[in-house]
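Help needed: design a sequence for this.
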């Protein structure tokens, strides 16, 4: 049972006080429960062509036939009971079914099959069946995922107040007061748990709830959960991968699994469809394409150009007369004898809009709004995003057969492999661990013979101009040398990651002071590429394979004097060392479809090892891993260190076994050093120092020394013997004086005792900021970013969907580059920008070809070349070539403009909105929707600078130049004969000839006469050139327009480089 005597009674009293007077308590029992998942027999990464092969599969799925699927047993024959007020600890390796168990108990079972053999048993909640519980009482269970997902715009207080108000715990105090008290209880370390606490659910399932926390903070969180269980009778089930020894005593029982796990769904599928829907709404609203023209693709209404044209007239059609007898306006909806056009009539004839429908249309808009809201709320209620599935390895089809001999045949084979790893411990063993020891020599053959040390290192950041800078690191002195594995520890917020970033030269903001040297030399410009930095976040390109990720690192970061064959052979050594050969050809993918947590962490380490680093920094390499995997990773680090690798590693909550693998410890608190030195056997040297310095208690015989030292320094900020802070005790200690003397000796003496200086760098080979030449960088990065999967989105979408696809992709690539490759000097930022541009240039060029074929020929524009008998005729080949070049440049323009905007911004939504705004302005002022003559003089400059002006000018000229036009019936003008003139012998042709000679147009009934009482039927235009001229388009300038539009594309490319430099690389 849990050790409840040590719990905080005031906390429990407060919890009991704030709960409602009547509260349901529910336990859970489960008997012979099985959970299965389903997946395809062969999981491959789809490419552009493979999606066409999937069309029959999708059609079959629509009618309910899913084809052959493989059943994957996740949980098998589970039995157990958790009573109200008890806490269950669920233990197991990643992918063993722990997450699936918690989701099943909470009712989150989408994508899996829950099998209950006995209707009377199965899963019961105090007598309530599983189905009834999650149908009628689904608000009484909650599942807390491992990742902390919150609304980023809300403050912590607003988030907690909302949770308190939606699920009130009682009426004694307001939700705001309760939320602040709750945040204080948790110390603001983990807002996720405070939300679950405020929800007040009787059954709470927490997935790896202490990931990323040090042991002291983790203990506070678990003790608070323990208090909630005691005071409110909540049933709490949680998984913990690396649990401190003392934490186990807070639980009532535990459960250990041995299975395989899970299934999932992703985002971003709605962007393209929604954009296309909105675009269609705008196009078919009647303004861009009038209703009469939506059924006749070939009709070009002349009225879009000749609006209210009273015209200049000649002898027969006299404008000098003060009367309007026999005259008509040339606009749609005009009436003979009127000098004006009624707006209602014009809108009705031109666009189909009627004033009588005004209030009806408003009602329809409200109905649509209500309908969309209903759909949104229904979807939000019943369709859950990010549904979980198992982590399924994906292989490229060409690599699938070559990898089958590596993969276990079934689940039992996988478990056998795990058991072998657990039992192996002999260096000569043929097990994976034995192979580790045998292969480590090859990995660390380039030993770091120098000493890396730092003296009086500090770091401060100015968060407010009116306040003094915040000092995060304060006077840290230590070193790392060949063959040592040094642990960097401290409570949450102690400055561990900050120190690692400062030492690795990865801080671009704030002020760093102090000395950081290698022997007597300061860090040079190639320091970053010769050091490895394993970050907490496992950031990888999802479309690359494991082997490609390692080869990319090896080819770009290993020294130039090594051949390509040597670098690629070293990749095989790394794969063997880290036991990654079975999935070397697997695609990295995304969570749920790709590598699992452990495999991603191994890949992160392998990518850095592939560079043959002289120094290796690791930031929380065991965070989020189970104890066995953490032991495997630390064993790997130990082997590398034994073969000469210098390693500095931050750790949060190492077990006693893991703690013993380290040689030295650097302990920080609030940015200051509390201890630096050897650990000694069973941490005896560390324990001896703190016991002499006034530790409040000695560790118990079975207590983990790492947890003991964190608890001692956290619970007692001062040493009991002297009353000084632990940092002050260290500064005045003999050990600190010894460290300072050693550092001074390292700096002044190049060869003393055990220290062997590294040879001077060969400037011809080593003194490069980047290991690979610029062209090699550009080729490898361009090849890496090329993705067949992404190209399928770019075939039939316009700018507003192009930018929504390119901008997130660019920002994701930039985040990965700046987090790892730029910091490690793998390749330069101009190479990154150029590679992204080249990739889009290739795919946009390929996309332009089918779009051109699918648009140019079905529209019939090519026929205009057959009928062109004009003196300045434009041939068929010239038309087609010009339109293709303009269409191709438009695709390039869309991509480069999107990248230029993305290069200067941080947020995806902001970048997309700005891109759409700029392009909308270009469309509005290009001369099509609003003619240049109709623009106010102030805005005419936008018409001149809009790139779409020249795109439309060249494209329309090539498409319809010299084409003959015919008026639609709504565009025809019926001109009555004037009653004040004697025109008995005149025909419509002779009557309107002077007018046509001066203004253009054509009479459709030339021989109609006044005597016959026939009106003259007049069309205001004859050929397209006249129409284009009034739009500001000069047909003879079509090739000039192509050149000017190409200039805009070049400006976008230059702007991409400029914006990146200005916002990301410009010295501050």
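Sure. Designed sequence:
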């Amino acid at each position: 049972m849990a050790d409840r005597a040590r719990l905080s009674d005031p906390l429990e009293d407060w919890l009991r006080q704030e709960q409602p007077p009547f509260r349901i308590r529910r336990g859970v029992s489960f008997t012979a429960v099985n959970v299965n998942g389903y997946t395809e027999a062969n999981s491959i990464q789809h490419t552009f062509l493979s999606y066409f092969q999937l069309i029959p599969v999708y059609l079959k799925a629509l009618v309910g036939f899913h084809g052959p699927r493989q059943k994957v047993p996740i949980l098998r024959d589970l039995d157990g009971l958790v009573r109200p007020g008890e806490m269950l600890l669920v233990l197991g390796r990643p992918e063993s079914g722990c997450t699936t168990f918690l989701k099943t108990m909470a009712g989150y079972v989408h994508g899996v099959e829950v099998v209950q053999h006995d209707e009377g048993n199965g899963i019961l909640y105090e007598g309530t069946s599983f189905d009834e519980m999650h149908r009628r009482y689904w608000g009484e269970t909650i599942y807390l995922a491992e990742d902390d997902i919150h609304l980023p715009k809300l403050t912590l207080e607003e988030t907690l107040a909302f949770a308190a108000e939606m699920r009130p715990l009682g009426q004694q105090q307001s939700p705001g007061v309760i939320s602040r008290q709750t945040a204080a209880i948790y110390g603001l370390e983990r807002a996720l748990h405070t939300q679950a606490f405020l929800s007040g659910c009787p059954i709470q399932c927490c997935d790896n709830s202490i990931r990323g926390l040090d042991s002291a903070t983790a203990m506070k969180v678990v003790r608070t959960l323990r208090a909630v269980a005691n005071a409110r009778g909540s049933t709490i089930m949680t998984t913990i991968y690396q649990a401190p020894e003392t934490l186990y005593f807070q639980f009532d029982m535990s459960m250990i699994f041995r299975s395989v796990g899970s299934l999932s769904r992703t985002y971003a599928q709605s962007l393209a469809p929604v954009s296309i829907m909105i675009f269609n709404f705008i196009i078919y609203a009647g303004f861009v394409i009038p209703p009469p023209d939506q059924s006749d693709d070939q009709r070009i209404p002349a009225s879009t150009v000749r609006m209210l044209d009273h015209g200049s007239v000649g002898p027969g059609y006299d404008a000098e007369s003060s009367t309007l007898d026999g005259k008509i306006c040339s606009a749609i909806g005009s009436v003979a004898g009127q000098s004006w056009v009624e707006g209602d009539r014009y809108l009705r004839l031109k666009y189909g809009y009627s004033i009588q429908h005004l209030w009806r249309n408003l009602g329809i808009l409200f109905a649509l709004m209500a309908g969309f809201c209903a759909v949104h709320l229904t979807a939000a209620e019943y369709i859950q995003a990010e549904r979980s599935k198992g982590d399924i390895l994906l292989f490229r089809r060409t690599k699938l057969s070559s990898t089958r001999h590596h993969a276990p045949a079934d689940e039992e084979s996988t478990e056998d492999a795990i058991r072998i790893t657990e039992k192996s411990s002999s260096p000569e063993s043929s097990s994976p661990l034995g192979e580790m020891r045998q292969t480590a020599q090859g990995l660390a053959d380039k030993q770091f013979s120098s000493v890396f040390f730092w003296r009086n290192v500090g770091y401060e950041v100015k968060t407010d101009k009116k306040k003094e800078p915040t000092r995060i690191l304060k006077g840290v002195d230590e070193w790392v040398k060949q063959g040592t594995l040094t642990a960097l520890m401290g409570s949450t917020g102690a400055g561990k990651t900050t120190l690692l970033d400062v030492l690795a030269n990865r801080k671009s903001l704030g002020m760093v002071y102090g000395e950081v040297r290698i022997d007597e030399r300061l860090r040079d410009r190639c320091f970053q590429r010769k050091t490895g930095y394993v970050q907490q976040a496992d950031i990888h390109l999802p479309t690359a394979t494991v082997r490609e990720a390692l080869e990319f690192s090896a080819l770009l970061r290993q020294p130039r004097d090594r051949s390509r064959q040597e670098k690629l052979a070293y990749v095989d050594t790394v794969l063997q060392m880290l036991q990654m050969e079975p999935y070397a050809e697997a695609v990295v993918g995304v969570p749920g479809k790709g590598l699992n947590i452990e495999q991603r962490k191994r890949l992160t380490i392998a990518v850095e090892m592939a560079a043959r680093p002289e120094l290796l920094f690791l930031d929380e390499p065991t965070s989020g891993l189970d104890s066995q995997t953490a032991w495997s990773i630390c064993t790997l680090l130990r082997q590398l260190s034994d073969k000469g690798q210098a390693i500095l590693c931050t750790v949060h909550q190492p077990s006693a076994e893991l703690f013993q693998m380290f040689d030295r410890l650097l302990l920080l608190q609030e940015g200051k050093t509390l201890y630096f030195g050897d650990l000694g056997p069973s941490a005896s040297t560390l324990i001896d120092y703190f016991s002499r310095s006034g530790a409040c208690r000695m560790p118990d015989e079975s207590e983990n020394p790492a947890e003991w030292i964190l608890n001692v320094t956290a619970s007692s900020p001062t040493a009991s013997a002297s009353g000084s802070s632990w940092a002050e005790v260290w500064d005045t200690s003999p050990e600190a004086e010894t460290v300072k003397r050693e550092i001074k000796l390292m700096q002044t003496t190049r060869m003393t005792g055990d220290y062997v200086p590294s040879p001077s760098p060969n400037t011809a080979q080593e003194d490069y900021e980047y290991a690979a030449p610029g062209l090699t960088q550009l080729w490898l990065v361009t090849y890496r970013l090329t993705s067949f999967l992404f190209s399928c989105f770019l075939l039939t979408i316009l700018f507003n969907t192009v930018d929504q696809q390119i901008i997130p992709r660019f920002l994701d690539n930039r985040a990965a580059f700046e987090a790892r490759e730029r910091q490690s000097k793998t390749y330069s930022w101009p190479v990154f920008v150029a590679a992204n541009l080249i990739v889009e240039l290739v795919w946009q060029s390929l996309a332009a070809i089918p779009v051109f074929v699918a648009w140019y020929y079905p529209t019939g524009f090519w026929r205009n070349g057959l009928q062109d008998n004009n003196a300045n005729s434009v041939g068929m080949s010239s038309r087609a070539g010009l339109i293709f070049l303009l269409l191709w440049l438009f695709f390039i323009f869309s991509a480069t403009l999107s990248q230029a905007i993305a290069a200067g911004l941080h947020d995806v939504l902001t970048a997309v909105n700005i891109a759409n705004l700029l392009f909308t302005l270009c469309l509005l002022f290009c001369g099509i929707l609003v003619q240049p003559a109709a623009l106010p003089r102030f805005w005419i400059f936008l018409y001149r600078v809009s790139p779409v002006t020249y795109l439309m000018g060249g494209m329309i000229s090539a498409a319809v130049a010299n084409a003959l036009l015919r008026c639609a019936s709504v565009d025809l003008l019926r001109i009555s004969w004037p009653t004040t003139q004697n025109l008995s012998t005149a025909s419509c042709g002779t009557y309107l000839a002077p007018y046509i000679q001066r203004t253009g147009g054509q009479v459709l009934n030339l021989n109609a006469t006044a005597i016959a009482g026939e009106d003259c039927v007049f069309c205001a235009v004859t050929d397209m050139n006249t129409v284009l001229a009034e739009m500001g388009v000069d047909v003879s300038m079509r090739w000039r327009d192509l050149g000017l539009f190409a200039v805009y594309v070049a400006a976008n490319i230059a702007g991409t480089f400029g914006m990146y430099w200005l916002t990301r690389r410009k010295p501050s």
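DSSP finds 37 helices and 29 strands in the chain.
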